[in-house]
Design a protein that fits this description.
Elements: E1 2-7, H1 11-22, H2 24-31, E2 35-41, H3 45-50, H4 62-66, E3 71-76, H5 84-93, E4 97-100, H6 103-120, E5 124-125, H7 137-141, E6 149-155, H8 158-170, H9 174-183, H10 192-195, H11 198-212, E7 222-223, H12 231-239, E8 242-253, E9 256-267, E10 279-286, E11 290-297, H13 301-320, E12 344-345, E13 347-354, H14 359-369, E14 374-381, E15 386-393, E16 396-397, H15 398-408, E17 414-423
The structure holds NADPH dihydro-nicotinamide-adenine-dinucleotide phosphate (NDP) and L-homoserine.
Length: about 425
């Protein structure tokens, strides 16, 4: 029998306990031995009582788990960076294998965690830390190991995908939908990490590190959230053949890795455009496999428990076959990062301008002087004297676009530059 301790018995921890009970016999056969939770560290004992855990299973302190040599797997499901990180490091130093769902901790302290796992010859698994129930970490580390990964493109945050889906289908503005999502319990009372793109950036840091075999931390990811997107942009994007999604993207060229999270216009026929509501998806491009997409539930009690239990079973198999620490850190390179100013993509820009002869030519002239070539221009009347202009550029260097916008904002015929949004998921022009 393999003995497991849970650190945290909230939503995910509770789900792990239930799943290990529910599929006990099946899991025993798959792992080669029984996998049993024997200790739980949890601040709020009422959560343990609700699951029917006997008092004897509740640890008085972390030391009780750490010093129990019979416990070989620790599942950290408390969240937050500390004390979780110290507990995980200590568990590995005591020879225990670790499973975690904690993206905040890995995106900040990944290197230390992987080094400690390696030094102690233990497994450190974290499938649930990115996209909840969707298998993506193990597939990238194992099934896709033969590929050079060229791009990772994901919808990694359910809350923002739900908000953007509602804004698209109902034409409502961001703040209205956010308030509704909070009322329904889909969005946290403090939604900053979700709507600000930080949650997706942490997940992207983990994925990009695996994809490009080089450590990417949260601080290396360029981040913009969805608070600047309004119903107008979504409507006009639709008229132009695009949907707006919060995308997490990482790719690599000779200049290095560029990892970024921002709302982007995606062609309406792109596979990720059909990923709606709270669903997540990850689109991976490998040099051998081509394009593949992983889709499913990115959060929730049982989907996330599915990933945690999958990792626990894998560790159980390793223990049964004396093959622990077989798949460790894959960051054997140290690649440079490209700044966002070096991004080359297409852009959507919405401006309010004076509606009179020559204005369009003046705007096109500024773009042209800055090396920005225009693909599409759409005009709507804003008031009797003003017009709203929506412009889509051809592929442009971000630095050139920013220069054009800084000149345009001072022109007397430009009232305001209302938004600019990057385009993604478009096949390069032949
Ligand atoms: P919860 O808040 O539901 O559960 C965490 C539990 O751990 C709480 O009961 C908390 O108690 C307890 N806890 C926190 N710190 C300590 C401590 N120092 N000692 C003892 N108990 C402690 O969180 P979730 O289950 O939602 O999330 C757990 C992890 O899984 C996080 O890292 C999260 O990012 C990740 N995750 C969650 C997903 C989800 O759908 N919920 C999806 C994917 C990943 P108290 O509440 O009293 O503080
Ligand atoms: N808050 C996250 C989301 C779920 O909305 O997708 C946990 O990672």
């Amino acid at each position: 029998m393999i003995k497991i301790a849970l650190l945290g018995c909230g939503t995910v921890g509770g789900g792990v306990y239930k799943l290990l009970q529910q599929n006990q016999e099946l899991i025993r056969q798959k792992a080669g031995q029984e996998l049993r939770i024997v200790k739980v560290l949890e601040k709020d004992r009422s959560k343990c009582a609700a699951l029917g855990l006997p008092d004897a299973m509740i640890a008085e302190s972390y030391q009780e788990i750490l010093n129990d040599d019979e416990i070989s797997i620790v599942a950290e499901l408390m969240g937050g960076i500390e004390p979780a990180c110290t507990m995980v490091l200590e568990a590995m130093q005591h020879g225990k294998h670790v499973v975690t769902a904690n993206k905040d901790m890995i995106a900040e302290r990944g290197r230390e965690l992987f080094d400690t796992a390696q030094q102690n010859g233990v497994d450190f698994y974290f499938e649930a830390s990115v996209a909840g129930g969707i298998p993506i970490i193990q597939p990238m580390k194992q099934s896709l190991a033969g590929n050079a990964i060229q791009q990772v493109l994901g919808i990694l945050n359910g809350t923002t995908n739900y908000i953007l889906t509602k804004m698209t289908t109902e034409g409502s503005d961001f703040s209205e939908v956010l308030a509704e999502a909070q009322r329904l319990g889909y969005a946290e009372s403090d939604p900053t990490a979700d709507v600000g793109g930080l949650d997706a950036a942490r997940k992207l840091a983990i994925l990009a590190s695996i994809a490009f075999n080089s450590r990417v931390t949260f601080g290396d990811v360029y981040v913009e959230g969805i608070t600047t997107i309004n119903a107008r942009d979504i409507k006009y994007a639709g008229e132009l053949g695009y949907v707006v999604k919060l995308l997490a993207i990482a790719d690599e060229n000779e200049g290095g890795v560029l990892a970024r999270v921002y709302p982007a216009l995606l062609p309406a026929d792109h596979p990720l455009a059909a990923v709606n509501d709270v669903f997540n998806a990850v689109f991976v491009r490998g040099d051998a496999v081509g394009d593949i997409m992983h889709y499913g539930r990115g959060a929730g009690e049982m989907p996330t428990a599915s990933s945690v239990v999958g990792d626990i079973i894998d560790i159980g198999r390793n223990l049964s076959h004396h093959s622990s620490a077989r798949i460790g850190c894959t960051c054997f390179a140290s690649k440079p990062f490209r700044p966002i100013s070096e991004l080359k993509t297409q852009y959507y820009i919405r401006l309010t301008v004076v509606d009179r002869p020559g204005v369009l030519a003046g705007i096109a002239g500024v773009f042209g002087d800055c090396n920005v070539s225009l693909q599409t221009v759409m005009q709507k009347s804003a008031t009797a004297a003003d017009a709203e202009l929506m412009v889509i550029t051809h592929n442009t260097r971000e630095a050139d676009l920013q220069q054009a916008l800084s000149i345009l904002k001072d022109k007397e015929f430009v009232h305001s530059i209302d938004n600019f949004i990057r385009l993604e998921g478009i096949a390069p022009r032949q």
